[in-house]
Amino acid sequence: MIDAAPPGGPCISTHALSRSFDGRVAVDGLDLDVQPGEVLALLGPNGAGKTTTVRMLNGVLRPDRGHAVVLGLDPSVDGDEVRRLTGVLTETAGLDDRLTARENLEYTARMRGYAPREARTRVNHQLEQFAMLDVADSRTVGFSTGQRKRVALARALLHDPQVLFLDEPTSGLDPAATREVTDLIGMLARERGRTVILATHFLGEAGRVADRMAVLDHGRLRAIGRPADLAAELWDGISADIDLGGPVAHTVLELIGSVDGVLRQEARATGATIAVRDRATMARVLATLTGRGIDVFGATMREASMEDIYFALESNFAAERS
Amino acid sequence: MTTTAPPAITGSRLNTAAIKAIIGRDLRAVRRSKAVVIPMMLVPTLLMVALPLVVGYAARRAGQAGGRIQFLDSLPSALADPIANLPQEEQLLTLVLGYLLAPLFLIVPLMVSAVLAADAFAGEKERRTMETLLHLPVSDRDLFVAKFLTGFIPAVSVSWIGFGAFAIVANGVSWGVVDGLLIPNALWVVVIFWVAPAVATLGLGIMVRVSARCRTTQEANQLGGAVILPLIFVAVGQSTGLLLVDVPLALGIGAAIWVVAVALVARGAKMFTRDRVAGNS
């Protein structure tokens, strides 16, 4: 495995990274550290600056100010060397439809400097891994979105890159293919130590695979961290649903509220939704209820999903702007 | 699959493997595109085979009918005298096939290079494949060189192959009338090996600049056509005798075209940076 990253340090680091186009700010003062083997979900609405960030990190665009370090290299100076070690899946698959899937991959391998024999071996391996061997010699013009994505992903992984930039890798994929791709991303990070920057709108998939989320808004990094940490900053406590088999009486709600560590409680059709300081509080609530002879049919602790956190953050940004 | 490192990038030398791969990919894709191949084959066939066949045959018939060519009187003596000194039945054939068609032939490298350059630069944007290319470890310079050669090599190849076909047709039509081979003559050698590559480079220089401003091949072809059309008029004007040249003048014109073409290409190369291309896409 190639390891150009300084040992122990982040493999991607940016400081005040900024870029404008014709006076319109695309990325504004981005400070970011990504550790080796980490999956970072880069989230934000269209035009938030995700693609521009990826382009600057891969040395395709030069920053107006600030700088980036990727695998110990400055992309604006050593762009070719950075791109040698990274793989990119662009939002559109970027396949030449006049060529076959195999040709699209083989030419890329040759452009990456592999000798013809090595290129063919790698391409065959990738086509097999992505279950595309049966259509390998067909022109990609008739391919479904899912097939195109798979060929493009196979191409991005052709040279076993240390860092992967994936722009909407699951858009247009069916649920099974989506699951395959997210599993693959997880495997690359956990088992092979690859670092993945996942720019996406699909919060469910991002939530399944990402270690941390970074939310961009109008080119600015507005939040970054583990989902649990961001949730803790947004909301007090952990939410839980208690199934009591029907609408809850006011006295029962009061009883729940009297337990030390309960932060909020409210009635719902089949029981109550509460917020507790920690898991031990939840155990005390259940003991209190069963101790008073109240039937508890079920209880579910609900960690905030990436989607919950993202929309809460977005709504905070919108409120700030207005 | 082993996890060997991708091959390292070799300093400041041209990355010929990557350049060859880009040219190979582009030309294979072009060969499969009827919209590009048909005009690229049709125009040279018309200009280099059909036209000399028809015009040459007519000139042969007219020459054999006899009579002095009044048109020679209006030509510079350096050009007219050698023709006037030929036997009467050879004069018209020599004038038409040996001189008048030569400038018209320059449309071939101009058109082929322009069509391929539009496909290589604007077409890449249109197909949304440029972004993928920009994320590869190929330097801006190597990318530009590859794209330039994708247009230049076929333009010159088609011109030279077309000239071969023209030589066969012209010598065939004049067979039995002209003593020996009519083509190649000195003017044609200059046109083919000196002026045609210059014109191909000029077409590329223009289209590189034009394509940078366009998002589709069609747009690039239209805008490029507006720039290139006047050049074609000059060539046609030449073929009708308005601007007839002899060999020294053809060498001079070729040199002038080279200067302009190289300047345009150099400027295009300077402007061809990832940052600019990605910023415009």
Biggest sheet character of chain A: 6 strands, mixed
Helix content of chain A: 25-40%
Number of domains of chain B: 1
Determine Rg of chain A (CA atoms, Å). Answer: 24 Å
What is the domain tally of chain A? 2
Proportion of residues in extended strands of chain A: 25-35%
Largest sheet of chain B: none
| Terminus-to-terminus distance of chain A | 49 Å
What series of H and E elements makes up the topology of chain B?
HHHHHHHHHHHH
Strand content of chain B: under 5%
Q: Can you tell me the residue ranges of chain B where pLDDT is under 50 for at least 5 consecutive residues? A: none
Would you report the number of β strands of chain A?
13
CATH architecture descriptor of the largest domain in chain A: 3-Layer(aba) Sandwich
What does this molecule look like?
The complex is a heterodimer of chains A (322) and B (281). Chain A is built from eleven helices and 13 strands. Chain A has helices at 50-57, 79-85, 101-111, 116-129, 145-156, 175-190, 203-209, 227-234, 250-257, 279-291, 306-321; strands spanning 12-21, 24-34, 39-43, 65-70, 86-89, 163-167, 195-199, 212-217, 220-225, 238-243, 262-268, 271-276, 298-302. In chain A, strands 5-6-7-3-8-9 form a six-stranded mixed β-sheet, sandwiched between helices. A four-stranded antiparallel β-sheet of chain A has the order 11-12-10-13, covered by helices on one side. Chain A is elongated and about 75 Å long. Mean pLDDT of chain A is 90; it is low at 1-6. Chain B is 77% helix and 0% strand. In chain B, α5 packs parallel to α9 (186-213), α8 packs antiparallel against α9 and α9 runs antiparallel to α10. The A-B interface holds A 1-2, 21, 55, 58-62, 79-81, 83-86, 88, 90, 92, 94-99, 103, 107-108, 110-114, 122, 125, 139, 152, 155, 159-160, 165 and B 1, 3-9, 15, 17-18, 20-22, 24-25, 28-30, 32-33, 127-129, 131-132, 134-139, 274-275, 278-279.
